[in-house]
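ok, trying the design again with the full structure, not the truncated one.
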């Protein structure tokens, strides 16, 4: 039993070490991209074909991630809970990410629900 526990601890340590190395590589890549002028504060989505909503045609939507706060995150979680949905991992929750996009952009939930599936994924 002690040998099995020791093996599990070693496996966990290896996984943690591997994750730390991957995170370090990712941070270095982000630094390089920022030096090259990449902007991670905003994202502009260009539609494959213009999208019309309530009489206004949109060729693109811009999302400003810098305006988001912890309050936005909590508000999205509250709205999801009201619908009986709890995000286990926000990064993989479509409803949570859609809520963040609404908070960061010039789009509302009604408009977002009208955007082509292929544009939204």
């Amino acid at each position: 039993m002690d040998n099995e526990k020791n093996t599990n601890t070693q496996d966990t340590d290896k996984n943690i070490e591997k994750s730390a190395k991957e995170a370090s590589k990712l941070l270095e890549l982000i630094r390089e991209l920022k030096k090259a002028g990449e902007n991670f504060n905003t994202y502009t989505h260009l539609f494959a074909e213009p999208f019309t909503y309530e009489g206004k045609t949109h060729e693109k939507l811009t999302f400003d991630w810098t305006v988001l706060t912890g309050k936005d995150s909590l508000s999205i979680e509250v709205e999801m809970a009201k619908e009986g949905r709890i995000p286990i991992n926000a990064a993989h929750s479509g409803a949570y990410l859609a809520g963040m996009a609404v908070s960061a952009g010039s789009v509302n939930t009604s408009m977002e629900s009208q955007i082509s599936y292929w544009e939204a994924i």
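Keeping the full-length input from now on. The mean pLDDT is 80.
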